[in-house]
Amino acid sequence: ATECFVSGSRSRGTAEKPNDAHCKQTTYLRCSAIDCGRNAFNDVMSGSENTSVLHCRIVDVGGCAWEGASRFVQFNGNYVRNAGTVAMGNLGPANHDETFPELGAGQHIIADNVFESVVPYGGCAVRAAVGATQVLITNNLFVNFGSSAVNISGRSDPTHYPTATATIAGNLFDMTEIGGESAARIAIDVSGSNVIVSDNQIYVRGACDPQVTAIKLLEPALNLNVHDNLIRNCGAGIVAGRGVSTVAEVVDERTFAPGSRFIPLDERLAAQCAGWELVWLAGGKPAERSVIEAITGAGGTDTVQVVLRAPRAIKPGDSFELVPPAANWTIQDNTVTDCRHPIVLDSHGSPTSIVRNNIITRGGTAEVRQAIEWRGRFTLIGNLVVGFDEPESAALSLHADRLGRDVHVPFHNNVFE
Length: 417
What we know:
Elements: E1 3-7, E2 10-11, E3 25-29, E4 32-36, E5 41-43, E6 51-54, E7 57-61, E8 66-68, E9 73-76, E10 79-83, E11 86-89, H1 100-103, E12 108-111, E13 114-116, E14 124-129, E15 133-138, E16 141-143, E17 148-152, E18 155-156, E19 164-169, E20 172-174, E21 185-190, E22 193-198, E23 201-203, E24 209-219, E25 224-227, E26 230-232, E27 234-242, E28 245-252, E29 255-258, E30 261-262, E31 277-282, E32 285-296, E33 305-308, E34 319-323, E35 329-332, E36 335-337, E37 341-345, E38 349-356, E39 359-361, E40 370-374, E41 377-381, E42 384-386, E43 394-398, E44 411-412, E45 415-416
Parallel strand pairs: 1-3, 2-4, 3-6, 4-7, 5-8, 6-9, 7-10, 8-11, 9-12, 10-13, 11-14, 12-15, 13-16, 14-17, 15-19, 16-20, 17-21, 19-22, 20-23, 21-24, 22-25, 23-26, 24-27, 25-35, 26-36, 27-37, 35-38, 36-39, 37-40, 38-41, 39-42, 40-43, 41-44, 42-45
Antiparallel strand pairs: 18-30, 28-29, 28-34, 29-33, 31-32, 31-34, 32-33
């Protein structure tokens, strides 16, 4: 069908498989998808357009609440409980058409929904991955949430495209576990590039839950702006880490094809990441460093190859991290209180990675050893750190650079009380 409108139905799962002409418009309005074995709503063809899932009830769904690679999707005003992921993207060579390089796919607006309880399938409530672009996740409620909530994934592989460009704003994450044992979970998990995380509330009711991480950021994502978030009673407040990639196939002593990878690629560019450092790992620790000449065969297909400036003995399965010369990370004007690990900066950092004007307080949480744990190249300016007065605790805990670099960064106008 080129146009479809479904209103007020009750089903055990709906699936949409467009023909070569693709669907032009589909609206699910006030539908119920309850007790489904697989997906509630679905369209994984990128040529389809204008799908709307509006004011529906999605409860006890064993697959995705929504899975889509289609364009211009609205998932708005729905109630979702004990259901799988709202999965945006899932795009590979088999499910896109010739317009993909110009228009992209996976454009989604996820707004004004209520997500409750846990996610039985997919690992988080909302995920943009493998090809999703231009994603808005705004003004949603996560209530008594015992699973991870939002993930903007920069991970790709030889048959999937990378994702990027999203805004996560104005959401309220109540990460309180009211059922059984609390599980490790992340409210906002970002490893894709070009992402804004702003004006969200992330909290646990009552005492601090050490299993909850409020915001996690992974390199080598570029252009991350995290500001004006209120974080309370979480095990970890804001955490910066590193994404690990692997070698799939060796072409020669300077060239290899990556397998599972965190590499920010643009489909339109022929050569990328020139001048970036590549850190080879042994036992999870830095062992050797190379410099990238270029990454060729742009996109997420099996044509992608990494070319090094100098030869090196490379083996399939080798793991590595990428270090951009300028990451452009801004973490500013957030309030982090009553968290066991308020701010952990455990990524490589860069001259354009900055933490400024944040309010960090211990509150009533005990056994908080460091307010700010600094392990990478981050500039700290104008932060207010108050109340970390337990024996052997520290307002600022400084550690040697992971790569042994002689790092000089500005620390000024911070107040430690």
